[in-house]
TrEMBL record:
Annotated SUPFAM superfamilies: 4'-phosphopantetheinyl transferase (SSF56214)
Record-annotated membrane-spanning stretches: none
Organism taxonomic ancestry: Bacteria, Pseudomonadati, Pseudomonadota, Betaproteobacteria, Neisseriales
Stated name of the protein: Holo-[acyl-carrier-protein] synthase
Keyword Lipid biosynthesis found: yes
Role this protein plays: Transfers the 4'-phosphopantetheine moiety from coenzyme A to a Ser of acyl-carrier-protein.
Name of the encoding gene: acpS
Amino acid sequence: MIYGIGTDIVTISRIARLHKKYGKALAERLLSQMEMLEYPQAGKPVNFLAKRFAAKEAFAKAVGTGIHSPVTFRHITVGHDALGKPEFHYDPELQKWLDKQGIRQVHLSMSDEEDTVVAFAVAEK
């Protein structure tokens, strides 16, 4: 059963402006500890940040909370399965909250085109 859906769209140029202004501090605000390990190797760090920002905003909308504890940028990790499909991973505090809400899984789809990233999330009970 669907608990909620969320979508977010972001222009890469917007994230580029923020990245130029704040540098690594932007990454530290948006990325989980696991993603911070990947960030230095990202071929296009601004795109990396834009995709994660859009995905996490879509997640927050799907679970109906917006971005605030325990649903925070740093508590959500965007990864990929063995076939490259994007997926969410959570820190223990967020996982506990999801379990309490009865949310079994949050599915993720992302796409990008030139200067735009879109993410779509479906939370499932």
